[in-house]
């Protein structure tokens, strides 16, 4: 019978690409990962890896096995969650990931509303990194966001539920076309906020001229108020309004979602967090 622990390593290799990356993410040594994957090959009875020097690639049989591994691991998550729900209430550590705006504005009141037996442990994380952190067991649940113009960034191992949607504002101007020749304050390359701004401007027919790269929206608004450029800012990040910054809503939205490992939503701690977040007034969509 195939070992689920080894299947998990194969799934991570499919996502991360190298044995070294899998070892680092799951706190193994590279040699231990290699040994476990070799043992999985023997259990499967077919070659799973094509080795060329220090690089490896998954064979067609390995890709097929990864598809089945996702279903197997999801069922195991569901079984564990059901057992926890049967034998205990929401208690113990709950590792929560959140993007900075959510950590600042949403989590303080949410954490105060959790059952007293839970011990929340919060880590700020970019939504693009959440799938890997959930798969590796570094997080139990996370708040992520999605923008128009940017495709979803979670993979098949992660289940998401929408919480609310908010408008995206342009600072100091009334339209993107009016801001065509302005200097821009962009998020750092590689973030969803950066990609959204670039693509929104491209859809309006121009490439934004970046002057600053800043991730903290309070700093972005302060720079905008000081005449250092224009920016796109989600509604939640503009609460309360910054003095000296004019905000114009655009036909662009940002959606906040809760994310957890597929099959794990019934875990008492994750379910309790989900219920608290869904019950907050800010999540009542218009």
UniProtKB/TrEMBL annotation:
UniProt-listed Pfam families: HTH_1 (PF00126), LysR_substrate (PF03466)
Family from the record: Belongs to the LysR transcriptional regulatory family.
Residue ranges of domain HTH lysR-type in the record: 2-59
Keyword vocabulary terms for this entry: DNA-binding, Transcription, Transcription regulation
Xref: PROSITE patterns: HTH_LYSR
Gene Ontology CC annotation, any one: protein-DNA complex
GO molecular function: DNA binding; DNA-binding transcription factor activity
Organism: Nonomuraea soli
InterPro entries noted in UniProt: ArsR-like_HTH, LysR_HTH_N, LysR_subst-bd, WH-like_DNA-bd_sf, WH_DNA-bd_sf
Name of the protein described by the UniProt record: DNA-binding transcriptional LysR family regulator
Presence of the UniProt keyword Transmembrane in the record: no
SUPFAM superfamilies (UniProt xref): Periplasmic binding protein-like II, Winged helix' DNA-binding domain
């Amino acid at each position: 019978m195939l070992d689920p622990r080894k299947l998990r390593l194969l799934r991570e290799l499919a996502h991360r690409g190298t044995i070294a990356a899998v070892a680092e993410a799951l706190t193994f040594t590279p040699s231990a990962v290699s040994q476990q994957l070799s043992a999985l090959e023997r259990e499967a009875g077919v070659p799973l890896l094509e080795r060329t020097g220090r690089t490896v690639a998954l064979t067609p049989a390995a890709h097929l096995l990864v598809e089945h591994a996702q279903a197997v691991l999801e069922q195991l998550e569901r079984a564990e969650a059901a057992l926890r729900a049967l034998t205990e209430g929401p208690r113990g550590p709950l590792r929560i990931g959140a993007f900075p705006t959510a950590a600042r504005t949403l989590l303080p009141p949410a954490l105060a509303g959790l059952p007293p037996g839970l011990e929340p442990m919060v880590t700020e994380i970019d939504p693009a990194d959440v799938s890997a952190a959930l798969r590796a067991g570094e997080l139990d649940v996370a708040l992520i966001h999605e923008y128009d113009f940017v495709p979803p960034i979670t993979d098949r191992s992660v289940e998401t539920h929408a919480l609310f949607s908010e408008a995206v504002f342009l600072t100091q101007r009334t339209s993107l076309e009016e801001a065509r020749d302005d200097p821009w304050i962009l998020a750092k390359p590689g973030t969803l906020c950066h990609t959204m701004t670039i693509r929104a401007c491209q859809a309006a027919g121009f490439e934004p001229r970046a002057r600053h790269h800043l991730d903290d929206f309070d700093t972005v608004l302060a720079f905008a108020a000081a005449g250092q450029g224009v920016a796109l800012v989600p509604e939640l990040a503009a609460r309360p309004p910054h003095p000296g910054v004019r905000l114009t809503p655009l036909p662009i939205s940002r959606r906040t979602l809760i994310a957890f490992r597929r099959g794990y939503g019934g875990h008492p701690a994750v379910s309790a967090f989900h219920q608290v977040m869904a019950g907050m007034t800010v999540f009542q969509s218009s």
